[in-house]
Every structure is written in C-alpha cells, then in structure tokens.
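User: My advisor, Dr. K., asked me to get a structural model of this assembly before our group meeting. I'm new to this, so sorry if the format is off. These are the inputs:
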Amino acid sequence: MTPTLLAFFVLLPVALIGAMLPFFGRTSRGVLFGVTVPLDFLTSPTARTALQRYRRDTILLVLSIVAATALVLFTAHGRALPIATGIATPLELLGAFLLWLRGNRTIKPYGIAVPLQRSASLSSKSIAIPMLAIAAAFLPLFADALWLRLHWSSIPARFPQHWNAAGKVDGWGTRSIASIFGPLIVGALLLLVFIASSYFMTKASGPQARLRRLALAPMAALAWLITGMFCIIGLLPLRQNISIHSILTIAILHLLATFSIAFWLLWRGNMRQANTAAEPYDSTPDAAWHAGGLIYFNPSDAAVLVPKRFGWGWTLNFARPVAWAYLLGILFLAIIAKTLPHLLK
Amino acid sequence: MNPQPDITITLDSPTPVYRQIADALRTHCVSGALQPGAKLPTVRDLAASLGIHFNTVAEAYRVLAEEGWLSLERRRGATILDREKPRAPNPTAQANEGGRLHHLVSELRAKGFTKDWIRREVLAALETAQ
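Assistant: The format is fine. Below is the predicted structure of the whole assembly, which you can bring to the meeting.
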C-alpha cells in the first residue's frame, strides 16, 4: 500500500471524529456544556461567546492533531502507524473534553433547577424494534459457515490471513476450525452485543424515548455491516489469490452502502420526528452527572440509557445493575473472542 | 380511533409521582380521552418512558384499579374499564369532599390566586369532565 493511501486510511477517522467535536457544546435541549440553563440564555452573549470559544479552540486543536499525524505518517512511514492510530483520536477527545470542561465552568453560575418534567405516550403499542432485521443478520454468517464446511477440501492448508501496512502478507492461517470459523464466531458475538444494545435503547427515557425509534433502524443497518465484513473475512481462505486492494475495495463499497442506508433511515426517521412535540428539557438532573458530565448515576431513574452530556448518543445509567451486567457481558464476549482461537486449537 | 394521549409528570413536585400519574389517567378517563377498552402501556414500558421506578407506575395503576377505572391482568396489562355510573354520593361523602374543595380554594387564595382565576379553572375542569 502506498504511504499516501495509508495516510488517508489513518487520517480519515481522525478527521471524521474531529469534525464532530466542535458541535459537542450543545447536545440536548436547554443544556449547554452539561449545565441546564434557561432557554433564552442560549441566545445571550455569554452563551454565544462560550460556544464560539469552544468551537474555535476545538477546530484549532483538531487541525493541529490531523496535521501532526499526517507529518508523522509521511516522515516515519509504516513504523509510526500504531502510534498515530492509537494516539491521535484519544488526544482529540481528551483535548475537546478539557475545552468542554472550561465551557462547563463558565456556564455553571447560570445553571437553573428546572422542573424535572417528563412526558410519555399512553399508547400500549410497544416500540417497533427491527429485531428481525438485526437477528436476520446472523443468517449470512451461518450460510458462510455452511459454504466453508461444504468446500472444506478446496481450502488450502495455508492461506494469507493478515496484511501489514505495506500490503504484504504477515500472518498465515491454517486449515483448522479456529482459523476458518473463528472470524465468523467473532462476528456472531459482535452481533449479540448489538442485539443487547438495541434492546437497551428501548429502555431509554425522556427525550431519547423518541430518539431511540430513530436510532434503531440504523442499528439494524450497522448489524448488517458487521455481518458483511465478517462474511468477507470468513470467505478469504477460499479466495487465496485475492489482493489486499480488492478486499479493501469490497470493504469500502460495503461500508459506503451500509452507511448510506443508515443515513437514509435516519433522515426518514427525522422527517417523522419533526412532527412530534419536543420535550421541555433534558430529563436528567445536573446533580446526577459526575466526572464533569461523563458519568450518569441516578438510582431513581429507571432508564438504562440516557443522552450524553459530552458527545452524541447515549451513555449508561450506572445506578442500574443491568448497566453493569451489559458492560460485563461485553467484557465477557471480548474475552471469549480473544481466547476462542486458543480454545479451538 | 383517537390517538392515545400523553402524560406529563413533574419529578420534583410536592405531589407524589404515583398520585400525579393516577390523577392524569383519571382526568383522561373522565374527559373521554381514554375510552373504555383502551389498553395502557405495561408498567415497565411506562416506567422506562418516564424514567421512574416500576413500583411508582404499579402503585398508580393499583389506585385506579381500586377506584374501578382499570382492570389489571397479568400478561394482558392494564385496560380501561367501562365504569358504572357512580351512585349519588351520600351526605357524609358530600360533606367530606365539600370540605376538601373549601380547603383547596382557601389554600389557593392564600397563595395569591385570584377568585376569577379559581372560578375559571374550576369551570374549565368541569367542562373537561364528561
């Protein structure tokens, strides 16, 4: 792989995540830098200045990190790859969080205690979870496994399984159960995590009760992304002459197709969402947020997932035992995925 | 069929949350927004949507079931009942409820609400109730 192409693959996620960070100042309605403020305060000079300062500094931070990463990649080539990929994004997130905390300190004196109102529909209809669409994502993995089993004799005794940054094969698999079925089993475990996440998204409260409908369809699309990726990896032993470029092209096309579907579903959901009334305020009390707005702990909130204060999406309510069970479950699956090849040998 | 109405609760209100839910549901039943036969969300679903404890919703449903508004069945959830017209209240009940109303009006007056406002609100409440 050429250094330019390599740099592109490393810089793309760093730049994409960096592009989101300037928008983290205001994440929920009536909440600025994690502080609940009066709605008219959001247009005040203090609020505007704090937001502008955060945006400006975050953009500068992201640009500097992207430039520094590019410089390291082009001067040190493949050797710097693990350092560049491992450090750039965490550094971006940490920097943005510190800038966000500065905003939080500025806004804190203007925080108000709003009546903690929550609304819910009295409809008995459960939220339609595209569980079937998510569960159906297991089928291609099973089909893949079956195909591999039927063509077992066509699988060479040794086949390329891992490529280095320069596109050269640096890892070989053998015709064993661990090498052949391992990727498919890891894919299936990841799907299980997805199903658990989708289930908890239906147990979210407040404003996100509506947002969860919006997010579940793209979750199904992402489940298919995982399946597709692991199916491609799973079939590699049968296509030993395939080049790394062809694999990457297929993977990128698949990624683009899935993300297009996910965005289309989000956009479609957004249109429906526009017709529903907005919640008066973020439904989580400021006092229940800890570590500068990163951790939510509220024993009197039945919701497992709540909207994040720093960043988009949801975070866990750590006062709920099921949240810990979810985290431990993920950890357990990760350990299984890591030790499975050794167990199968 | 009419869409099911919404319910709004205030977590930091002096009125207990279970009482707010019971009051809101009763109001919807009396106004006809919730028709007999209408199914309510399960205790767990409503609790999760409102971000409150399951027992709070269960308590509200129990209060309404005792009043004869709801039928609670395991697995089938809560259903609004076609409640029989209540008999004319006896003099003791009338005296009790009359006293409660008087206390409420005095409390509102003490808080600075005008007579006009109270009259308007009481009439509006009577209008809403079928």
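One thing worth pointing out at the meeting: The radius of gyration of chain A is 23 Å.

User: Perfect, thanks a lot.
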